[in-house]
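Recall that a protein's primary structure is simply its ordered list of amino acids. Everything else, from secondary elements to tertiary packing, is in principle encoded there. The following example makes that idea concrete.
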Amino acid sequence: DRDPLIDFTRADCVTFTEQILAMAISDNYEHMFNNLQRIRYHRGAIDLRTRNHFTHADWVPNNAWLLQDVTAAVGGKYCREMTKTIDRRKLLSDLGVPESEQAAIPPAETMTIKYIPEHSLLAVQDSLQTGDLFSIIQSAPGIFSAHMGLIIRKEDGEVYCRHASSRPETKQVIDDPLSTMVTQLQANRKRVGMAFLRVKSDVNLAEPPAATPVDHEIKH
């Protein structure tokens, strides 16, 4: 993986969220660095093939030690389901990984997730907590998540979405009121709602295992 292992000078929505999570659960730089790689890569093995490329197919299940999906608990009767086929091998091929190096990569799989439609998000905002993660769900095939960030409930009680914005007029980490995010979602036909994650209350914060680069056959 040619991406920097840590970079506080720039970030996209995923790397911003990963770095904030790693800092929040760590008590020193070494622990933070190792936790970051554990969040970003399957079992902390640093390699393009082990990176958690797909938010809901890789990033969420491989971080079950840290996070739980609370979409159903937050959304209740408002939840909807979406089913897609996730093709990791195609993505890796598009990223330049030869087929000969993909033997351990699972074939395409079909999976279903729950999400809360954009028109119902304000109805469930009282169930959101500071530190929750949001994932914007899109309708395009092959991938669920279009964007992600953190939920912040400020002193005035209003819920905000803190995220690394790629909009040309911002291109920085900003706080958008959830109501503003809903308006933006409603104006975008491909973005249909949100799913939510929460840090587990019983997460084990013991010293994380050191991250290791992969220079051999991947084993799952």
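The mean pLDDT is 91. The chain has one domain: 13-201.
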